[in-house]
Amino acid sequence: MTSQEIKDLTQQYIMNTYGRFPVAVDHGEGARLYDPEGREYIDFTSGIGVTDLGYGFQPWTEAITAQAGKLGHVSNLFYTEPAARLAEVLCKRTGESCVFFANGGGEANEGMIKMARKYSFDKYGQGRSTIITLKNSFHGRTITTLKATGQDVFHNYFFPFTEGFRYAGANDLSALETAGDDVCAVMVELVQGEGGVLPLDKDYVQAAAKLCAGRDWLLLVDEVQTGVGRTGSLFAFQQYGILPDAVSFAKGIAGGLPMSGFLAGEKCRDVLGPGTHATTFGANPVCAAAGLVVQKTLDGAFLEAVKAKGDHLRRGIEALNLPCFGKTRGLGLMIGIEVENGYTNKDIANRLIENGLLVLTAGPGMRLLPPLVITEAEMDRGLEIMKKTLS
Ligand SMILES: *Cc1c(COP(=O)(O)O)cnc(C)c1O
Fold this sequence. Notes:
The protein is α/β, with parallel strands linked by helices and 391 residues long. It is 38% helix and 18% strand. The chain starts with a helix and ends with a helix.
């Protein structure tokens, strides 16, 4: 099919819930994507932080193909090797104790929320169920995770929302200190992604972790976007010097297949017993086989390279001195760029995409999430397109 035919068919038959860019994608190689007519795009989006191994990554394709040929699905009423092995690797690499596997980020966060409330209920009974989240956060699109999201624009239309969430300012420790005795957990993103690539202060995060431990509140970290190598460590919390009670992951975990979950520490390992939580597709063996390839690829040297690539790209952007761009910020290959007054991020994104560079927006700024395997040549090609388009 041609790009136009694909767009027409989509518009006719797929619910119109996304503001799509006018590009149809057919296949990819490394950090390059191609439309059906063969036009090349440099990808600084990786499917919103998902395709960490880029496109056409041979070991990933082979592992998926082999596992699909053996066993594509069996319920969680049985044991399978790929999920068990992936859980082992994740626990050993993080110091956490066990994993619950799910399918998407919102679902993973919802599982953490359930665990936090049950932990508190088991120990203290009712009345201690409030979860504090941060202003400007994003935690998902279910009725509960919309309410957990600390942005008013998400609290509309779908009333009634789930009760029991309050919002504190990011980096505002006193808002946590004065939070009251109805609290059971604090949930944060260490780098707020959708909110605009806003890293939390390390001092604040460490003090918040101490406060949570002292009050027996669970510290829940949403690493749906920051996890799985994105920031230059397997999880961002490892650079913040904390060990969360639970940490969710999704986007990059299986390199492009739908998989998510959350890790829990020792004190939570028995909170969600048989019958309290479940999901039909969770721990799918094909997704888990893909996840094992991601884990094997993201070794120490690979993660160091992610940091170096992030530095290269940020320095490259700053050196262009473009009139529309302000400061850059972020961690590893999660990069935010401020947009100067008089320009809009959506307009900049559209112009870059027209010229062959796929980018994202977040909050009022630009957001770059390139595949973690991106090469220096691919990054430099992207920088060239920025220069040509925006000078
Ligand atoms: C993307 C994202 C989610 C939602 O994940 P879905 O897979 O779309 O449900 C939740 N939290 C954060 C931090 C995210 O970036």
